[in-house]
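Researcher: Following up on the earlier apo prediction. This time include the ligand. It's glutathione, with the SMILES given after the sequence.
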Amino acid sequence: MVEISPQKVALAEGGEIGTNPAILYSFRRCPYAIRARLALAAAAIQVEVREVALAAKPPELLAASAKGTVPVLVLADGRVIDESQQIVRWCLEQLGRDWPDDRLAVQLIASCDGKFKALLDHCRYPERHANGDAAAARQQALTLLRQWNQELVELPQTSQRPELQWLILPFLRQFRGLDAEGFAQESGLEALRAWLDPWLEGSALGAVMASPWAERRAWYSPSWLYHLTLAADWRQAKRQGFYPWSTRGMTFEQVGFVHASWLHQVAATYRLFYADAADVVVLALDPQAIAAAGVPIRQEPAPDTGEFFPHLYGPLPLGAVVLADPYPGDASEAS
Ligand SMILES: N[C@@H](CCC(=O)N[C@@H](CS)C(=O)NCC(=O)O)C(=O)O
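Model: Understood. Below is the ligand-bound prediction.
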């Protein structure tokens, strides 16, 4: 649901974060973020998880960590941990456990984050590589995995260590996902599959791939502006490259500005003007992109209540739309 929680209202008004002491910027499918979520969940750390659209990173994430990767953990005292291994390390500390520093663990972690991740990316995005031969990259990755397999055969207790599961298995899962049938049939991967397969079906992974650890839609930043629209109008605007509307049934030409809301005002705007419409879309707008398009934003009072709303003094620039989601969202989608 896009319904605004009290916590988000507090944030929108510049208040305290509320009941959740830490914030995790995350991306549902990212293996680094899955790694962090597994560790945080295992350590029973209470976090507010903010799902990020990598194409529309919220300013709060970039303010916490300018490199703009996820996961990023912002602790209650303001400390920022923006490397997944460091988040796992911090979680292990909370659990009173040490970072795995035996030979096999160190080798596996380095191989996973180094060579294996590079080959995985090569398989997933061959077009991004100069000699983008995905088949060759896959064979190299399989050779590496057979080495891992051999290590596991020699030291089977490795597979029982939760921290190695958090660190390694999200990446193996992603590789398997490229060709699950092929992966199941590869020779020399038996020990790896015996490690991976039960974990894939297990509750630890299931929990961090579902709400509230992982949502299917991105977190709404209180730094953005919001505009409700009818789905058909939005589809047409995208087709024609121009959005003529100000509010439901009235154009920018008629009104002289485009109506918008702050995050904490969206639900009330929906209830007042759109609740009876079948397909409503909420657009999140980046105010900097609006300004860059030469469209002034003015805070002006609504004539009846005096409540201040943001108004765009120019047609809504399509390039400023960072998210477009059905409204209200279906909470069941998040599972
Ligand atoms: N070394 C970082 C790598 C994290 C990383 O690269 N995450 C990817 C998503 S899987 C990302 O945020 N990419 C940024 C982008 O695509 O813009 C870590 O371990 O946390």
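Model: The radius of gyration is 23 Å.
Researcher: Noted. I'll compare it with the apo version next.
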